[in-house]
């Protein structure tokens, strides 16, 4: 339905508008290139829809202002890192209160007990450890699983996302053959030596892969989120748990994105029973923090193989993990920000957001859909929901994605980069949602006009 020449012309027009309205960001970007590779402090920031990134002046709640004075509704929210909304008051107070009393000592603080007990209550797993990123939490859980089982392999799902865990950079080609993920930069080892990969929702492939008895752990998001939102088919999680137990494989559930489903993530909402659970990003209101929890059985088997005197060089843990600032931020965020009331309001607003997009799609009879999980949703430029990562990857339209992002950005809306995903915080207003619906409709009209 999209005329590609017309789309190319629209993109050029939006790029010109972006340059015109962001002169200070452009100037800072040029200056940054003298000291920062690519003009950015972190590689992914080169991928924003404009030809340079927006430089932020300040952010609060669901909104921010850039250095040119442009105001934005933020539906990206730090790609989940700021799902709480920017600078939540309770978290700020906890950070300020702790900072003057010490930031890190590599010793425990009383607050760690409150955080551990709250994690028990929310997710149902009895024992917890702290990290700084979900990547590290996943890495540590994988190491524990391999040590306990004596098995070398990990199993992941095609086009999964678990941060920068080396073992997960593997996909299936068009013929279903495992290959290193394209553009995997400088891998330590070909992931085919460490990892098995199958499609999400493929129970038959799961049993075949586990039956060899060489898989220490399945690492899975309960709902795939980084190649679009892909829900499990009915009964899939029951089979995933049954088969991992049957073949002596640990199940690691990564809730880093799916914490959007509720206070205890998808695990608590749907009664999952993982051996490990990992989560990072939003649990400290934007301060770097992550945790991983596990069962008593896992703890007993791990403890039996742990050499205490070498625990600091065994590849699990870190000197800044469980630092006082992160712990204080986690305690405040879990107790006062990521509450049932947070989810009730945010999910209701996301339902309104989704309904608005679906109404525009229906009005223009577009072969597009919207998928939602809690306070997260995403629109797809295809008529039916993909059931796995391979189908989702085949549906990506980079030009159309970039146009929709840039059109929104030029009109004061920030969507999550790399896909058309929106997160809602309780600080988002109904007027914000209505403005997105209006702007989305105008973007569609421009494409079809």
Beta strand %: 15-25%
Q: Please give the CATH class of the largest domain.
A: Alpha Beta
Low-confidence stretches: none
- Supply the number of helical segments: 14
Question: CATH-wise, what's the superfamily of the largest domain?
Answer: Type I PLP-dependent aspartate aminotransferase-like (Major domain)
| Rg computed from alpha carbons, rounded to a whole number of angstroms | 22 Å
Shape label:
globular
Could you tell me the number of beta strands? 16
Structural class: alpha/beta
Q: In the residues, how many domains can be counted?
A: 2
CATH topology of the largest domain: Aspartate Aminotransferase, domain 2
Please provide a brief summary of the model.
The chain is an alpha/beta fold and 449 residues long. It folds into two domains: 192 residues, Alpha-Beta Complex (Aspartate Aminotransferase, domain 1), CATH 3.90.1150.10; 248 residues, Aspartate Aminotransferase, domain 2 (3-Layer(aba) Sandwich), CATH 3.40.640.10. The strands form four sheets. A seven-stranded mixed sheet has the order 4-12-11-10-9-5-8, with helices on both faces. It has a four-stranded mixed sheet with strand order 1-2-3-15. It has a three-stranded antiparallel sheet with strand order 13-14-16, with helices on one face.
Task: Give a description of the structure.
With 449 residues, the chain is an alpha/beta fold. The protein folds into two domains: 4-86 and 340-448, Alpha-Beta Complex (Aspartate Aminotransferase, domain 1); 89-336, Type I PLP-dependent aspartate aminotransferase-like (Major domain) (Aspartate Aminotransferase, domain 2, 3-Layer(aba) Sandwich), CATH 3.40.640.10. It has 14 helices and 16 strands. The chain has helices spanning 4-21, 23-32, 89-99, 111-123, 134-149, 203-211, 236-246, 265-270, 296-305, 324-336, 340-363, 389-394, 398-409, 430-448; strands at residues 56-60, 63-66, 71-74, 127-131, 153-157, 170-172, 178-180, 195-198, 215-220, 250-254, 276-279, 290-294, 369-373, 376-380, 413-414, 421-423. Strands 4-12-11-10-9-5-8 form a seven-stranded mixed sheet, with helices on both faces. Strands 1-2-3-15 form a four-stranded mixed sheet. Helix 4 packs across helix 10 and helix 5 crosses helix 9 (296-305). The longest helix is centred in the last third of the chain and has 24 residues, at 340-363. The protein is globular. The protein starts with a helix and ends with a helix. The mean pLDDT is 96.
């Amino acid at each position: 339905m999209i005329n590609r020449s017309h789309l190319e012309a629209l993109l050029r027009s939006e790029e010109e508008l972006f340059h015109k309205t962001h002169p200070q960001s452009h100037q800072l970007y040029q200056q940054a290139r003298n000291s920062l590779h690519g003009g950015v402090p972190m590689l992914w920031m080169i991928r924003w829809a404009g030809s340079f990134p927006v430089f932020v002046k300040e952010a609060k709640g669901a909104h921010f202002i850039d250095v040119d004075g442009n105001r934005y509704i933020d539906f990206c929210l730090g790609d989940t890192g700021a799902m709480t909304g920017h600078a939540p008051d309770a978290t700020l107070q906890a950070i300020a209160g702790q900072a003057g009393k010490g930031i890190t000592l590599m010793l425990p603080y009383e607050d760690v007990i409150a955080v551990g007990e709250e994690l028990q209550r929310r997710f149902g797993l009895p024992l917890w450890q702290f990290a700084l990123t979900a990547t590290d939490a996943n890495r540590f859980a994988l190491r524990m699983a391999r040590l306990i089982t004596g098995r070398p392999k990990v199993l992941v799902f095609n086009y999964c996302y678990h941060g920068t865990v080396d073992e997960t950079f593997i996909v299936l080609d068009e013929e279903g053959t495992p290959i290193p993920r394209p553009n995997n930069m400088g891998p330590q080892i070909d992931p085919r030596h460490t990892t098995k990969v199958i499609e999400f929702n493929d129970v038959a492939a799961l049993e075949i892969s586990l039956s060899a008895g060489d898989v220490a752990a399945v690492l899975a998001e309960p709902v795939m989120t980084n190649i679009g939102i892909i829900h499990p088919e009915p009964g899939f999680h029951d089979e995933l748990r049954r088969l991992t137990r049957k073949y002596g494989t640990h199940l690691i559930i990564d809730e880093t994105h799916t914490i959007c489903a509720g206070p205890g993530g998808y695990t608590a909402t749907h009664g999952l029973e993982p051996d490990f659970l990992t989560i990072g990003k939003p649990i400290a209101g934007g301060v770097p923090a992550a945790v991983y929890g596990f069962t008593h059985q896992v703890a007993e088997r791990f403890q039996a193989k742990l050499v205490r005197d070498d625990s600091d060089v065994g590849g699990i843990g870190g000197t800044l993990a469980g630092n006082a600032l992160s712990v204080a931020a986690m305690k405040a965020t879990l107790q006062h920000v990521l509450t049932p009331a947070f989810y009730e309001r945010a999910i209701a607003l996301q339902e309104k957001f989704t309904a608005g997009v679906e109404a525009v799609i229906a009005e223009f009879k577009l072969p597009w859909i919207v998928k939602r999980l809690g306070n997260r949703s995403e629109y797809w430029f295809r008529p039916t929901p993909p059931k796995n990562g391979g189908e989702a990857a085949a549906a990506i339209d980079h030009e159309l994605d970039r146009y929709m992002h840039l059109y929104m950005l030029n009109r004061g809306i920030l969507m999550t980069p790399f896909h058309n995903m929106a997160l809602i915080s309780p600080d988002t207003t109904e007027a914000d949602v209505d403005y997105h619906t209006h702007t989305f409709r105008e973007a569609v009209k421009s494409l079809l006009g």
